Amino acid sequence: MALVGIDVGTSGCKVVAFGEEGKVLSQASREYPFSVPRSGWLEIDPEKIRLAVNQSLGEVLRQTKEPVQSIAVASHGETLLPLDREGRFLHPAIANFDTRAYDYVNFWQEKIDPFEIFQITGMPLHGMYTVNKVLWLRDNLPQIWARVWKLVCMEDYVLYYLTGEEPKIDPSLAVRTMLLDTKRQKWSTRMFELADLEPDLFSSVVPSGEAVGQLRPALAQEFGIAYQPIVATGGHDQPCGVLGCGIKQAGEAMYGLGTSHCVALNLGERLRLTREMMDNAFCCSPHVIAGSYITLAYIASGGSILRWFRDQFGFEEKWKAEEEKKDPYQVLMERMPATPASVFLLPHFAGSGTPYLDERSLGAIVGLNLGTTKGEVVRAILESLTYEMKYNLELIESFGVAIDSLRAVGGGSHSENWLSLAANILQKPISTFSTGEAVAKGAAMLAGWARGEFKSWEEAIQRMVSVAKTIEPEKSMIDHYQPRYEIYRKIYRQLRDLNQEINDLL
């Protein structure tokens, strides 16, 4: 058995082939940059995304000794890519946390009660969702709009590229457009009528783990393989990660420590479309496992702040990492002091995530003095990201949703320092896995489901996922972190008005 999962992120693509017991057979990845043509605008060159997928998948298929039976695609949400009838790109991909369309919140508020939107879509009203980018494109670029054939997100684009078939999207990603009826898991007639859009402009919605075609012969030939694997829907990266780290019970959560800093909580079969969920910006969206739902707590910029710090201030560490053949992030973390920092960072470098969804909030580093070291700032980044997530989890639990344990995925899950720090701040056990590529593994499991490889999700999890270790929180650290957490909680509100004024200058 060989199953491939493709994980298309905001800053790069990773492709992994898995065999029996979830063993990694081969993997490859490529990065691509995003551009900032104006303050608040985030764009990705779609040709670089296509090349990253092409090169990574080709490398994996050539390296995997046994034939790959099936491929599925997971991707980040909200990003918009308009295509013409020949499948050509009409505009750079407007990335998930791009803020150009945030004024369309007013458009919706004039037409419908935001709570009704939440009841239909499971999405709290916000400017980041794909539909608002679509409305901006229609209203601001009519020459491009006139040539649009399909408006796709990343999963459906990659499926289209790989198969040549009409674009398909699964419910877990389609819901991130704010156009899906989350109960029926079909496009919402009401939302399309209010937006004055035609559903035919969008991809067809089909279940996660459904075959949509085979790898195009031309690509199979380019990749040097003599067969055409099945290509299937995967899903939004967060629920794919939930599946890929073996979560099957309500109250278990995936903790993503990568470019995106996110907790994806399995809600089980219960739809939680309450006002308190909406007021705190917590979604209720379809899981990739039919009949289940998840909610997300996230920080918009997340782990990309560590990448920003590495690129702007980590020249010495990057050089040392190259010399010693280490990961530059590992070298940066080796500089961290052993004790909690008294420097704080507001991680709103691309606006805030939950629970504020304040796109005008900005990042800040607070508590610097002439003795502050680079290592202290690195520790402050990791601690402050965790403080922000702690507040989110406390809110969710106050709604009567228990969060029993966390399963770490992403680049940060490979760092003992980061995991220990997070467990101590959150005071929850954090587990890791023998293969940390949970999003790609979840997609590969959906690829296997599409081919009939598994009789049940319990079987899929039992065969593919194994826990490597669990880090327990140290109770003795509560006294160190609690006062710092209380200070952190004040920073956003103290800086909110000032950040608004600064934003007006940008």
What does it look like?
By secondary structure, the protein is α+β, with helices and mostly antiparallel strands. It has 2 domains: 3-245, Nucleotidyltransferase, domain 5, CATH 3.30.420; 298-434 and 474-505, ATPase, nucleotide binding domain (Nucleotidyltransferase, domain 5, 2-Layer Sandwich). It is built from 19 helices and 24 strands. The strands form 7 sheets. Strands 18-19-17-16-22-23-24 form a 7-stranded mixed beta sheet, with helices on both faces. Helix 16 links the parallel strand 22 and strand 23 (430-433). The model has no long low-confidence stretch (mean pLDDT 94).
List keywords for this structure.
single chain, 506 residues, alpha+beta, Nucleotidyltransferase, domain 5, 2 domains, seven-stranded mixed beta sheet, six-stranded mixed beta sheet, 19 helices, 24 strands
Q: Mind sketching the topology for me?
A:
Blueprint: E1 3-8, E2 12-18, E3 24-31, E4 34-35, E5 43-44, H1 46-63, E6 70-75, E7 81-83, E8 93-94, H2 104-111, H3 114-121, H4 130-140, H5 142-145, E9 150-152, H6 154-163, E10 168-169, H7 171-174, E11 180-181, E12 186-187, H8 189-195, E13 204-205, E14 211-214, H9 217-223, E15 230-236, H10 237-244, E16 252-257, E17 261-268, H11 275-279, E18 285-286, E19 293-299, H12 304-313, H13 315-324, H14 328-334, E20 344-346, E21 364-366, H15 374-398, E22 405-409, H16 416-426, E23 430-433, H17 438-451, H18 457-464, E24 467-471, H19 478-505
Parallel strand pairs: 1-6, 6-15, 10-13, 16-22, 22-23
Antiparallel strand pairs: 1-2, 2-3, 4-5, 5-8, 7-9, 11-12, 14-15, 16-17, 17-19, 18-19, 20-21, 23-24
Helix pairs in contact: 10-17, 12-13, 13-14, 15-16
